[in-house]
Specification:
alpha/beta, Rossmann fold, two-stranded parallel ribbon
Length: 124
């Protein structure tokens, strides 16, 4: 089954390229963490997708990405040494957290933040 949603294929809609969006996310995270090193960066993701975004942020920040065991196992299936070197199950040693899109809200972000021994400012 292939379902195509063509609404946004109309020429009246213009979107930045994938690389521009990734660069914007990287620049925003870098700027905020530089201004306040206690900033917690939270990326939302589905089961597969958004890897380019959070991995680019991790590389620029020199940080690993913490995530659930389920997401960790999914990413391990990609058998990528680069990805494996940037992901962790340890929530306390990183300020870059990956959460399911359906869990992204202030209550969950606060819970995620409070799991860390460090105090963070939140960057959604």
């Amino acid at each position: 089954l292939l379902l195509l949603f063509l609404r946004y294929c109309s020429p009246e809609y213009t979107f930045p390229s994938q690389q521009e969006v990734i660069q914007f996310a990287v620049n925003t995270a870098f700027e905020q963490v530089t201004l306040n090193p206690r900033t917690l960066v939270v990326c939302g993701t589905y089961s597969v997708g958004k890897e380019k975004v959070f991995l680019a942020i991790a590389e620029v920040l020199g940080s690993k990405v913490s995530m659930s065991q389920e997401k960790y196992k999914i990413l391990q299936c990609l058998e990528s040494a680069t990805i494996n070197s940037l992901i962790t199950l340890n929530w306390t040693n990183t300020f870059l957290h990956l959460l399911p899109m359906m869990q992204i809200n202030f209550k969950v972000r606060f819970k995620s933040e409070s799991q860390s021994k460090k105090s963070h400012n939140l960057l959604p």
